[in-house]
Amino acid sequence: MPNPRRGLPLLLLGLLAACGGEPPNADAEPESPGPVLFTSVEQTAFWNALRAMCGQAFEGTLTENEPPSTDFEGQSLVMHVRECSADEVRVPFFVGDDRSRTWVFTPSMEGRALRLKHDHRHEDGTEDEVTQYGGDTAEPGTATRQSFPADAFTAELLPAAATNVWTVELIPGEVFAYQLRREGTDRRFRVEFDLTRPTDVPPAPWGSN
User: What is the domain count for the chain?
Assistant: First the structure.
């Protein structure tokens, strides 16, 4: 009597072929889910919203500047989400003809925080003496707001800025705001960019091609 179990593998292969499928390959490598940059959903959402603006530039308005700084008063203010790699977003911030400033966002602490650094360059591309200051988030924040207290490097480089807290707000399609407050002082700075009206892409920041 024929053994019905011998025909079972052939039957399964036939059913797979009929459905357009193939038998599983035990030696195949599992598909990678891709890099997970942040452990919090809030910072993941903020990061994705920031990267979604890559290539666009926007004009800003100075809404707070205490004590008053003539470096910013009456100047055109433009941000450009210029470079977006898998683990870094670079946003040059142009003040009039001054193209020395770039905000640099990266994951830190193995995805447990978001980092903001300030890259300052001279016109010839060399680094300014005061550069790479900033800090890491101390909490998940929200999908639209992240705060960055000054880190130890900043406190050593700029002792007066040891109590700085930078805050970035991003409401997709509406507004991007960069804000500085210096705890224990009256120092306040805030510029808001209108995301409803993209502007012409500016030249490269100093030190970039």
Answer: 1
The CB-based long-range contact list for 117-124 (8 Å cut-off, 24+ gap) reads: 119/90, 119/207, 121/205, 121/206, 121/207, 122/206, 122/207, 123/99, 123/206, 124/206
pLDDT tens digits along 172-189: 999 999 999 999 999 999
CATH of the domain at 176: 2.40.128
Q: Is residue 101 assigned to a domain?
A: yes
The verdict on residue 10 lying in a domain is no
- Structure pTM? 0.83
- Which residues form the domain of 55? 41-199
pLDDT in tens, 85-122: 989 999 999 999 999 999 999 999 999 999 999 999 99
| 102 vs 122: CA distance, rounded Å | 12
